Amino acid sequence: MQRSAIELQKISLTLGNRLVLDDINLNIYEGEFIAILGPNGAGKSTLLKLLLGLYKPTSGKIEILGKQAKKGNNEIGYAPQHRTLEADLALRARDVVGFGLDGNKWGISLPNSSRTKTINTALKEVDMLHLADMSVGKLSGGEQQRLLIAQALLTNPKILLLDEPLSSLDITHAQTIVQLVTNIAKNRNITVLLVTHDINPLLSSVDRVLYMANTHSAIGKPKDVITTKALSKLYGSPVEVINTNGRIFVIGEEN
Amino acid sequence: MFEILQYSFIQNAFIASFFVAIIAAVVGYFLLVRGLTFAGHALSHVGFAGAAGAVLLGVDPIFGLLAFTIISGIGIGMLARVLKERDVTIGIFLTLALAFGILFLFLYQGYAEQAYSILFGTILGISTFNVFVTAIFSSISLLILLFLFRPLLFSSFDPEVAQARGVPVKLLGVVFLIFVAITVSISVQVVGVLLIFTLLVGPAATAMRVVKNPYLTIGLAICLGIAYSWIGIFIAAQTNLPVSFFIASLSFGAYLVVRLKEVIS
Question: What's the predicted TM-score (pTM) here?
Answer without folding.
Answer: 0.90
